[in-house]
């Protein structure tokens, strides 16, 4: 049984973590939270919303990604959120559509 307290996604806490790494949130959709400039995406765990998965843009400099990751992990206990780096993502315009294609690579 899932505790109702962990059954609520906390966009505010995800935003605090992003801000602790020097970025803000530009967009949130369902279980995904996009950083400004699409540097990274935070994805909420499927069942335990106190766990966050971190994906970096495939074009993000590895040193920048590591710095962001470390800042978020360090801030995790303050926000009562756990952060796990899961991999990379790419985003591109879908052909002949006004949609974006998002691909995750773990």
Commentary on this structure:
This protein has 106 residues and is of the alpha+beta class. It has one domain (4-105). The chain has helices at 11-20, 62-79; strands spanning 25-29, 32-35, 40-44, 51-57, 82-93, 100-105. Helix 1 packs across helix 2 (62-79).
Mean pLDDT: 89
Q: Could you say how many structural domains there are in total? A: 1
Termini, distance in Å? Answer: 28 Å
Low-pLDDT regions? 1-6
Instruction: Compute the CA-based radius of gyration.
Output: 14 Å
Judging from the principal axes of the Cα atoms, what is the shape? globular
Helix content: 25-40%
How do the strands of the widest beta sheet line up side by side?
1-2-3-4-5-6
Structural class: alpha+beta
DSSP strand content: 35-45%
Count every beta strand, where a strand is a DSSP E run of 2 or more residues: 6
Our count of helices gives 2
Topology as H/E string?
A: HEEEEHEE
Can you summarize the main beta sheet?
6 strands, mixed
Secondary structure topology:
Elements: H1 11-20, E1 25-29, E2 32-35, E3 40-44, E4 51-57, H2 62-79, E5 82-93, E6 100-105
Parallel strand pairs: 4-5
Antiparallel strand pairs: 1-2, 2-3, 3-4, 5-6
Helix pairs in contact: 1-2
Give a concise summary.
This protein is an alpha+beta fold. It has one domain (4-105). The chain contains two helices and six strands; from the N terminus they run αββββαββ.
């Amino acid at each position: 049984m899932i505790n109702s307290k962990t059954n609520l996604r906390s966009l505010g806490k995800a935003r605090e973590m992003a801000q602790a790494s020097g970025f803000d949130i530009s967009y949130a959709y369902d279980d995904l939270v996009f950083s400004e400039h699409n540097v990274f995406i935070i994805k909420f765990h499927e069942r335990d919303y106190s766990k966050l998965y971190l994906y970096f843009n495939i074009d993000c400099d590895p040193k920048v990604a590591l710095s962001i990751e470390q800042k978020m992990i360090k801030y995790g206990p303050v926000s009562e959120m756990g952060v796990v780096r899961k991999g990379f993502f790419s985003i591109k315009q879908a052909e002949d559509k006004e949609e974006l294609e998002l691909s995750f690579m773990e």
